[in-house]
Amino acid sequence: MRPHEILGIVGSLRTESWNHRLAEAIAAIAPERLRFELVRSDLPVYDDDVEAAQPPAEVEELRRKATAADGILVVTPEYNYGIPGPLKNTLDWLSRPAFRSPFRDKPVTSFGATPGPGSPSRAIAQVNAFFIAVAAAPLPWPALAVGRVADVLDDDGGVDAKVARRATAQLEAFADWIEAVAAYREARAR
Ligand code: FNR
User: Fold this and answer.
1) Calpha distance 157→73 (Å, rounded)
2) Per-residue model confidence (pLDDT) at position 1
3) Residue 108 and residue 177: Cα distance in Å, rounded?
4) Which residue, of 54, 104, 128, 165, has the greatest Cβ tally within 10 A?
5) Cβ(100)–Cβ(132) below 8 Å
């Protein structure tokens, strides 16, 4: 069986983003059933007039990637107890056309990381609300939420063993989920 193609949308624009570094570290040790492409949330600001006329080429390109992906992983920082504006903007572009967007029925899951002592769980909760709004197929549990992220990443792109174990458990579950959703859809189509 070919690997499941996963589009990883990272909700930070920073060159040295912790979330991007964490996503890269985890993609590098992910189960063989999954293959990742990571993108940043750098689309122009959503405008419904532009959507109605002609969406920008980079939006069309990301929609094409999201549609083709077998699953989507959203990796989010937490900004003021929510997701950063650029990530919300990217998700809003990908939520169109309504009811038949690239997210419709798509297996999805999320991670979040913060350098602070708490958990980015409120940002993850907002991502989950988005998944429901667009009728995606969210993995029910777990979602990796990493606090004090600077302590779990090393300079060589590695991640500490405990976080690696938790991430791997989530990604194994996600691979199973992608296969289960595909089987369900096939059964419903009969
Ligand atoms: C933050 N940060 C932050 N952290 C957190 O744990 N909870 C929060 O509510 C916030 N709020 C917040 C608002 C704004 C405007 C900024 C700029 C930052 C800190 C944040 O976690 C930190 O900047 C991370 O480094 C952002 O993630 P990346 O860009 O490193 O992936």
Assistant:
1) 19
2) 84
3) 9
4) 128
5) no
Provide the whole-model pTM: 0.98
Please list the ranges in the chain whose pLDDT falls under 50. Answer: none
pLDDT in tens, 139-151: 999 999 999 999 9
Helices 85-94 & 57-68, crossing angle to 10 degrees?
A: 70
Whether ligand 1 lies within 6 angstroms of the CB of 41 is answered as: no
Spatial contact of 115 and 151, defined as CB atoms under 8 Å apart: no
Q: Is the CB of 11 under 6 A from ligand 1?
A: no
Residue ID of nearest Cα to ligand 1 atom 21? 114
Distance 126 CA to ligand 1 centre (A): 15
**Apex 33 CA angle, 180 and 72, nearest 5:** 65
Burial track 124-141 (b if 16+ CB lie within 10 A, e otherwise): bbbbbebbeebebbbbee
